[in-house]
Amino acid sequence: MNNAGQIVAAILAAGVCGGVCAGQVVGGFDTSRGGAFSFTESAYAAGARSALSTHFSPTFTSASVLTPEFLGGLDVLIITSASQNNAAITPLSGDEQAALGAFLAGGGRAILIPDNDTFSGAASAANASILSAVGMSAAGTLSGTQTANLSPLDSPLASGPFGDVTTFTTLFPGWISNTGAGQVVARHAANNQVAAAVLDNGALGAGSGRVVVFTDTAAMDFTFANNDTVFLNAFAWVVVPTPGGAGLLAYGVLLAARRRRG
User: What does the pLDDT look like over 231-242, one tens digit per residue?
Assistant: First the structure.
């Protein structure tokens, strides 16, 4: 663990978050729906889950369907539109889209990961279904390994308790073609299209929770350069539920502690 990670772990262990940052219930699709890219169950996301466990001590839970009951037991939802390299999840049904919208409107938080629009015949439909609740849309395909440039550099993904970075890595990504109420925080170096966006508290209506949207499943693959820092910064930002709350204070303390140690 690097110095930044040690600082974060120590502060969380000391209880500065008052139970807000630590002990989150993180949910996602099980492997019957999410396949090889199920965040909560797949081997692909094992490194990301391990890092969250180290720093935040979450509980992971899974389901094949996004019901109000399942979402009601979560703090954070993490789902992707891909289930295999060449297969998409079954697109969210109308009921699932409504349940996700209600979850976010009620303060639920999420990391949503659509992908490119050609990895599967159902890719576009799957992408659209997981982004409908946040008023965004995705499109396009870039080939091979691509660099995403983070900007502005004081955004929560570029500058957070786990470090300051300027880029992260994607693999055959798509991009966000309509950001809705979101703030752009990364663009692909290859075409300047949006690689990541965030929605702050209240962006979807009074009381709505924070959301981060990446455009490639590689966001949760920590073998790629800087993806661990970016994803952990994203999660740390997402789990702060309300402005001015204990979690926001803790997030500020984490940043100050890390920066004092440079």
Answer: 999 999 999 754
Count structural domains, the chain.
Answer: 1
Rounded to 10 degrees, the C-alpha dihedral 17/23/220/188 comes to -30
Tokens of 254: 């984490």
What is the C-alpha separation between 158 and 174, in angstroms, rounded? Answer: 20
What's the whole-model pTM score?
A: 0.88
Which residues are CB-neighbours of 244 under 8 A, at least 6 positions away?
none
149's tokens: 């440039």
Contact 237, 212 (CB under 8 A): yes
Measure CA of the first residue to CA of the last residue in the chain; give whole Å: 16
CATH number of the domain enclosing 110: 3.40.50.880
pLDDT for 80-96, tens place per residue?
999 999 999 999 999 99
Higher pLDDT: 142 or 243? It is 142
Domain that holds residue 117: 3-260
For residue 248, the surrounding DSSP H or E stretch is helix 246-260
Three-state SS string over 207-239 comes to CCCCEEEECCHHHHCCCCCCHHHHHHHHHHHHC
The three-state (H, E, C) secondary structure of 114-161, written as one string: CCCCCCCCCHHHHHHHHHHHHCCEEECCCCCEEEEEECCCCCCCCEEC
Cβ–Cβ < 8 Å for 177, 100: no
